[in-house]
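Predict structure. Chain length: 357.
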Amino acid sequence: MSINILDPKCNTSLISKFDPENTDKYIRKALNFVKCPGPWIYCNHPENIIEAALADNNFYLNQQNITSGESQLFASYINKTGEPIMFGVQIYNPNASQITITKTNYGFRCSDEYSWEDVQGGSWTDFFNSCETTYAIPSGGNIWILDECIPTGAFFTYNLRFIADSNAIITIYAYKDKSKITGNAVYYLGNIATDGSTYSGLGESYFLNCSFDINISSLLNKGLCSLIGKVLTNTNEIISIVQPSPAPIASETSPSPYNNLGNWGAQTLFNVCINNDTSFNKTINGYVACNPLGATPVIQSGCVVRYKSLECSDGQNVQRWNFYSHNICPGDSVQIDFQYITGTNSCTPVYLMWTAV
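Prediction complete.
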């Protein structure tokens, strides 16, 4: 069942301090994930868009040939050109007959109108509350499924899920003059082969499932803590990204710096069964906490999306958000589900924790 996500913006007492190094209070639990197959068009290099990367100079930021079915796009950039630019996503039909594209979910936000927290989290609020739109593209034709003005110095992010009924070519551009986009552009590689800190390419998945059980008797002396988005920690969690040649594949087993991955912008559906195997009423609490560099967790369940930028204020203790609380009678169980997303420009890992009182 969906959960009542506690709102940290309306109730500041839901935010408390947590020492991530204090393992005396928490049992560490590794988790098992299942990746749902589907192309993830991942766009984050160069994170700082410069003049040289523009389509006016015959470059695109990413291009993928997708087959029929569902695909998802994640984009996160900063306009560092010194002038306003446009950011666009074009879908081209290379087939001999018409194709149909259905935009099922989308969310775009830019820091000229929103705080950075609302860019990170609010784009997902828009994504989950968007309306479906269908486009027919004739043979040899194209549509611009996104075309937004980006002010100088602005941060922005875009998440898009769409369904194609046949193969199509999707291209991501930053530009000033659309008339200079000829269809003959090439990948802007920049220093993608040597940078290793930001990536663009194609991910193997964009949606994960994770299921586990919690027995409240195991939480009577210590809480439970799992690290989310940390390489070589959980099973099958980290999503690899195939980059354009000559850049290597970014994966958790790649040599540094090509393992700088944290599933930013990926969706994980958690299914948790909580059993009160004690003789007393117990309240189960769920928390998410950042690491010392900060993070913006996004949680969705049912029709509600909530998010909060968490930080470290004293050099040791980080902020944690009590997002779930529920009383369970002796012998009863609850089955809960919620989606978790690490907002763009967050640092991973984050901590998913459970306590019982």
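Summary: The mean pLDDT is 95.
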